[in-house]
Amino acid sequence: MFTPTLEEARKLMEEHNQEAFHRQHAETVSGVMGYFAKEFDPEREEFWRCVGMLHDLDYEEFPEEHCVKEEQWLKDMDCDPAMIHAICAHGWGLTGITCQPESQMEKLLFASDELTGLIGAAALMRPSKSCADMELKSLKKKYKDKKFAAGCSREVIQQGAEMLGWELDELLQKTLDAMKSLEG
Hints:
Radius of gyration: 15 Å
Number of domains: 1
Mean pLDDT: 95
Order of helices and strands: HHHHHHHHH
Largest sheet: none
């Protein structure tokens, strides 16, 4: 059974993702997952980071089969089944993916994947081009504007908060804090 190191996961992600945006998204989600792992599963921080790094492995090449192609690739590599499930579960409700998030890690990936995109877009609108000086109030304003970062599903973000048993504000704040930590 293969469980990649973070460097191996990064190399694999870069083999399948040429666009800078997709590479940056993988790095951001990996960092956010590492941040959450420190609180919820500190012994497995690298595992959580690898899941974040690989979560969109097939998206650039096969957007219509997102999570489906990747599942097969990872199985062909004899990848850790827990990693495969976590990665596939983040796409629950898309492209026929039926495995849903079960563990805390899976729920956090599901919830934060879309949210990191929204926070990143909001940061780019700021004079600082950073989320370091962003407050929850500003983020909530962008979140409520359905035209802003319209590709970031508010429904998925809300569903993720509910899965976690968190209020939406808690998910927004914790993910914002995680992204701020990546800039420090």
